[in-house]
Amino acid sequence: MKFFLSLSMNDLRSTFRDPVFKGLLFFPFISYAIIAWVLPAVIGRWPVVGDYADIILMWACLQSSTMFGFIYGFLFLEEKEENINQALRVVPVSVLYFVFSRLFIGIVVSFLVSMILFRFGKVVNLPLAIEILLSLAYSLSAPLITLLLAAFARNRIEGMVQMKIVNILLILPGLIYFLPYKVLHFTALIPTYWVFRATEQAIDGSPLFYLFFSCGLILHLLIIYFLNRKLETEVTS
User: Fold this and answer.
1) Mean pLDDT, the chain, integer
2) Every domain of the chain and the residues it spans
3) pTM of the complete model
4) Contacts of 82 (CB under 8 A, 6+ apart)
């Protein structure tokens, strides 16, 4: 627990030391403002936008989560450039514990942001249990992005490029709501496809919600597991 708290406080100090990271921390507040205040005003002016309110909510939940993924991913890359991560070879904790300790805060904060958007955003009216499950599903994008950057990028420059690519890929499944091409359902290989579809089913009150949620959860966890294994191999080799 002492190691966990020390690591969390160090990450917090690093985040506030970087002006870019400090700016990203305001994004959850911006997301809420867009959903709770800007969106209703826009719908009042252009009612057709109301048909896409659910999709805009999905985007806000996802972006709030990916924002924390990018922050923690870049903290990993900063330490990789300075060879600080090599200290894991000698510290008395496993790589898995180290990674989980670092990602835990990002997951919790991402979860809370999504809960606030679902509960107080006034776009949808869902049962609390469904909101909790959906918020959990969206929050898993944070560790997924963090591990992708940590496992595949060698420095922050590569991380910036990968960050843009990953963000596009995670949003890509949302095109099924705009373009009538069945080929877009091949984006089911991307875990956010299932999260978006689970949100859709929840709003429609369909029992298929649990199927889509389970598929998204399993796919997220499988990818996170293999990414963690790759990072663990890289650090300990």
Assistant:
1) 84
2) 2-236
3) 0.88
4) none
